# Entry
Amino acid sequence: MLARGPDSSDEGLMTLGAYGSTMEGALPSDNPRQFQYIVPMTDDAALQAYCRGLPPLYSEEIVIHPWQVEDESLIEAISEALSR
# Structure
């Protein structure tokens, strides 16, 4: 789990690539939310569009799909800590 979510920056690309390179194939259908982050660095639609534009290994075979955690208290706590 990442504190800050990926975006379309070079750092975001490296994060997505590093995660994808650890996968041996498509995410299991029973656990598609393996790549989670707490604080978004871009809106979800832009992030998902960016992921769909990655090379085929990442966008078609692994199908990288980052998710923001749903725990509002965690999001609030980490957002506050990151803003210091």
Q: What stands out?
A: The longest helix spans residues 10-21. Strands lie at 2-4, 36-39, 67-68. The chain has a mean pLDDT of 93. The first strand starts at residue 2 and ends at 4.
